[in-house]
Protein 1
Amino acid sequence: MYTYQEMLSILNNGGYRLTDQRLSLLQVLETFGGSFSALDFEKKANEMEPSIGRATLFRAIDLFLEQGILEKIHRENGDDVYIVGSKGHHHHIICRDCGEIRDIDACPFEKELEEVIQREGFSSTIHRIEIEGICESCRKKGEGKN
Ligand SMILES: [Zn+2]
Ligand SMILES: [Zn+2]
Ligand SMILES: [Zn+2]
């Protein structure tokens, strides 16, 4: 996950103004250890900086998503969540029980996808693949109950 400094330089390099509100929002992001909802973000943002309105917050979320500072994770249960982004092409594996999200750094799908893409005659493609399951510690907890 990006650190505060890294998020700052992404905005800086993109030529975006580092307004006080944007800086506060980056500080809020740094306090999240894992995934969070838009509502979680809004609550924490308002605690830190009551002057940030809803419209400003959602515009900032759009900007952060566009710049890769934030990543939106689609969940099977329909409750999409956000996490602070990380560098480079990667995928996520998500625990359905505790909601933990881990980065998978190497792309395990590259080779197979390349064949499909070539066959379809596409170029400049992107892909998003998320894996959802039960993590080891949740599985152990589940076994303990039986
Ligand atoms: Zn990620
Ligand atoms: Zn879990
Ligand atoms: Zn990939």
Protein 2
Amino acid sequence: MIDFGIYGAQEPRIFAYRCPQCHTAYYPPPMLCAKCSNRRDPSGIVYDDWEKFPLEGACKLLTWTRVWALPEGYDQPYLLFGMVEFPNGLRASGRLEVESPHLGMELIAWVAESSERPGHPVNIFLFSEAAARPLPTNLRCD
Ligand SMILES: [Zn+2]
């Protein structure tokens, strides 16, 4: 594992948001709370911004798929993608780094920076069985 801390960089994160009025959690965050209609103001000028918290850790696999037709530049035959549910009920999709996925399996969600597509790097979810942070398949050196 690379320790980005020595360069002053932060660990990549993906955030969920919580409505300050009714405490409902969202990912991704809406501009209006579906439960109490409270407004979210990312600028914090008109209304207070909502509480944000990192979304990662234990989760359960809801569904998954194997994508065979990868864009040019990938040197593996397929990638796995999954949708998971966290204990707080939030759902997210991302790269599934598991050999034999099955529905309902317990996973751990990690966040990694991915620069495999054109444009600025983006933070993506990686879902794995082990408690060790996986590298995205295409970034592995093996
Ligand atoms: Zn609310």
Protein 3
Amino acid sequence: MNWIAWIFVGVQFILLFVLFRIVIRLVLFILFFHESLPYAPSNWVPQRAIARLPVLDGRKKIVDLGSGTGELLLAIGKRHRAAELVGVEHNRALNFFARARFFFWRKKGRPTIITGDMFAYSLQNVDAVVGYWIQVVMPQLLEKFAKELRPGAVVICHTFPLPDHPAFSKQEINIPYSKKQIWIYTKCSL
Ligand SMILES: C[S@@+](CC[C@H](N)C(=O)[O-])C[C@H]1O[C@@H](n2cnc3c(N)ncnc32)[C@H](O)[C@@H]1O
């Protein structure tokens, strides 16, 4: 086979891989759309923007509440190798894909995927919580954050902001060259 044929095979292989990813995402999205907080992976723009936030530097434990197939964790994990990363997701099928995603990562630095209810996961020793949430779950989440997070801990989300709360200071960031936004909530000292 000459080099043009190799390039042709390579391009076909990449296209097939991209198509496979799109189909898998679409099937999972359709299957789990009925939930109050449905599966919808974060777009790569906010994923990367969140991962690059200086406020995450040096954080020891970062938790994605409702981690889906681990897209957001992946972006964060690539930049914050020293942090302990945890994904909490109640859907076993999505957890299967998330664990497969991290299967070849070295044990040290590999995100831990926990099957469980994000509202039941204790945030006592967590430095940063990230997530992609919608309005229906936000009041309950906010109450949990206010009760369990220690001063200085941050909550970071994108696309939809959390309601204001006196226990948190809020910072809004417009992602350059995009219409998307990120919000950082820092737990205030008592
Ligand atoms: C919008 S997706 C976000 C996925 C991922 N964080 C990301 O940014 O790509 C929300 C996820 O939360 C999960 N979820 C909804 N309610 C949950 C609960 N009570 N406990 C754990 N996970 C939950 C859904 O199954 C879904 O995968």
